[in-house]
Inverse folding.
């Protein structure tokens, strides 16, 4: 079954969020900043989409959250990758690599036909 455009975008955001907390717990703003910085500003996640994704991933058991204090000395909810989330990130990374390879075959200089 071919994913719909929305599920493809949602799946992409989910993978990016999981990757952003792979090494350390981050609050929502930190997740968005990490994605923006890591993609050299190419991907900027809107707040509404980000917080919806964080709550969805927490509900699925892929993220765990705890309250802490941010760099600005404000109360913030921090998200960390769970074991289930790590397994999902591995799967998503493999799926995306296969998908990207297929798209590059079509869009690349030798692709299409």
């Amino acid at each position: 079954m071919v994913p719909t455009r929305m599920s493809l975008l949602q799946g992409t955001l989910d993978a990016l969020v999981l990757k952003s907390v792979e090494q350390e717990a981050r609050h929502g703003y930190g997740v968005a900043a990490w994605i923006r910085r890591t993609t050299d500003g190419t991907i900027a996640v809107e707040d509404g989409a980000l917080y919806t994704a964080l709550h969805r991933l927490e509900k699925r058991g892929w993220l765990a959250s705890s309250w802490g204090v941010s760099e600005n000395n404000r109360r913030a909810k921090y998200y960390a990758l769970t074991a289930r989330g790590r397994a999902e990130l591995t799967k998503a990374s493999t799926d995306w690599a296969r998908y990207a390879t297929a798209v590059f075959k079509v869009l690349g200089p030798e692709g299409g036909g």
Summary: The domain at 5-107 is CATH 1.10.10.10 (Arc Repressor Mutant, subunit A). The chain has four helices and three strands. Residues 19 and 89 are 7 Å apart (CA to CA).
